[in-house]
């Protein structure tokens, strides 16, 4: 195996073990010793690739967001959903990714509500591509529809983001497993659907 391949394999092994530990316990409570022990990784090797716990955490979050973004894009690309079914297509793609990568799914929920404000800003900076997909989905969902006059499309995107963050914060300290993730996603889908109907133009707005 070439050196670059060995390096990539070592990093993947570290990220896999670390993602599970961060998903199960959150950033503060996660243990670097447990990551090394569970992954069969030496501390020297871990710190060779990742200079600190924060650097490792951000790498895990970035990988989770990258995978989720790619999964949603694939799902939307292959979906034949009508514009008014875009939200269902979006959540179907999300849930498919979470089923295939349960640790990444749990980490995604946890990382949206990291209590440390400095770390939170760094996490949010990694969301650019996911936020662009959210805007794209909203544009498709609103195609041919009128939005309430007191709400811009950009405000609708921000409300979507805030609702997601509130939902993740609400569930931050609850035990996580694949089945509970499935139930939470189903409820989140319903909540987002209600949100969208709430921002569409009402009949009395036209008066």
| Tally of DSSP helical segments | 10
Describe the largest sheet: none
- Percent of residues in helices: over 70%
Q: Are there runs of 5+ residues with pLDDT below 50, and where?
A: none
| Structural class category | mainly alpha
How many individual β-strands?
0
Radius of gyration over all CA atoms, rounded: 19 Å
Strand content: under 5%
Distance between the termini: 71 Å
Shape, per Cα inertia axes: elongated
- The overall average pLDDT, rounded, is 83
H/E order of the elements? Answer: HHHHHHHHHH
Quick description:
With 207 residues, this protein is mostly helical.
Please tell me about this protein's structure.
With 207 residues, the protein is mainly alpha-helical. Helices cover 75% and strands 0% of the residues. It is built from 10 helices and no strands. It starts with a helix and ends in an 8-residue tail after the last helix.
Question: Which features would summarize this protein structure in a list?
Answer:
207 residues; mainly alpha; 10 helices; 75% helix; elongated
Layout of SSEs?
Layout: H1 3-29, H2 32-39, H3 43-49, H4 53-78, H5 86-100, H6 102-111, H7 117-125, H8 128-141, H9 153-170, H10 178-199
Helix pairs in contact: 1-2, 1-4, 1-6, 4-5, 4-6, 5-6, 5-10, 8-9, 9-10
